[in-house]
Amino acid sequence: MICYPQILCVGEILFDCLADQLGTKLNEVKSWTTYPGGAPANVACGLIKLGVSTAFIGCIGEDKPGDELVALLKKIGVNLIGIQRHSTAKTRQIYVIRSQEGERHFAGFGNFKTEEFADTQLEAEQLKEFLFTQAKYLVIGTLLLAYPQSKKAIFRAIELAKKHQTSILVDVNWRPVFWQNIEQAKPLIMELLKHADFIKCSQEEAAWLFNTEDPQKIAQQFPKSKGILITLGEKGCHYYLGNHQGVVEGFSVTVRDTTGAGDSFVAGFLSQCSDHEAEILNNPEVAKKAIIHSNAVGALTTTKPGAIAAQPTKKEVEIWLKNRSITNN
Questions:
Q1: Are strands 104-106 and 237-241 parallel, antiparallel or unpaired?
Q2: What is the pLDDT of residue 324?
Q3: How far is it, in rounded angstroms, from Cα 226 to Cα 243?
């Protein structure tokens, strides 16, 4: 029996190597702890924990780290049919140093060049079209635009999504460390965003890409878009959904690690859309509740180290919101 996931997440999966010592420079870090990560993989795992069937599509090395990541996705319940394995390129690892407050800074790839990793080798011809036939949403980031082969795969995924009327959410997720040629990044990202039904970015990314942090003004640049989500870190989210705009404040929590918080926000948002997108786009109160839920998923993820390990379940989010007298239904 073929399993048709509701949501497809295409892109990178990797290991984040987090500095154990907070507030230290790269050359001063004494030890690292590895955590599974990669934005599309984080979103996929977050969605599964929130009760939404999801597939991850990406390329992983035929190495021990790759085996560990596949085993993790399988354990969580992510659909693995779309995963490609590369015989020589390694599974990506990225080093992350953190401030005393837990804010992260990407510090490179150790002894390897960014283009040497398996995720850059995702092949367009190997994308499985049947996965798109009943999917509601396709989630893609921008990192794989930095490499010729994976860029081709990203745009092939968009073609398949359009063919099968799958809505597209693009998370800008700007990471300069992934790009060999920074000058190519902005025009490529802007071209990708033309195909998006939903655009999610941080406040800083909005200012860089669009010269504005107003989601309504951004929406005017992209006629196809149904919604713009601008995350403000601990301050919450500024959004434009349908024809209504608002700001929902963030939650005050004790932060352990901010890695993956934005990805969990995306998972929270799409879990709401998968149930009632039409109401979110047409009813301001439903839209606000969807963003409250998304903020809660993101906030809870920051209370524990790592991206995937820290993600809350649907029940945990519901209880957490209920305890704060915030309805989410």
A1: unpaired
A2: 84
A3: 9
Tens digits of residue pLDDT in 146-167: 999 999 999 999 999 999 999 9
3-state secondary structure of 211: coil
Strand partners, 7: 54, 137
CATH of 7-323, one of 3.40.1190.20, 3.40.50.720, 3.40.50.150, 3.40.1090.10: 3.40.1190.20
Q: What percent of the chain is modeled with pLDDT above 90?
A: 81
| First-to-final CA distance of the chain | 33
Structural domain boundaries in the chain: 7-323
**% of the chain surpassing 70 pLDDT:** 98
User: What does the block give as tokens for 209?
Assistant: 């890409």
3-state secondary structure at position 209: helix
How far apart (Å, rounded) are the C-alpha atoms in residues 315 and 317? 5
pLDDT-wise least confident of 59-63, 78-82, 175-179, 205-209: 175-179
DSSP 219-276: HHH-TT-SEEEEE-GGG-EEEEETTEEEEE-------S--TTHHHHHHHHHHHHHHHH
Q: Dmax of the chain from CA atoms?
A: 53
Q: Please give the pLDDT value at position 140.
A: 98
The reply to whether the predicted model has a pTM over 0.85 is yes
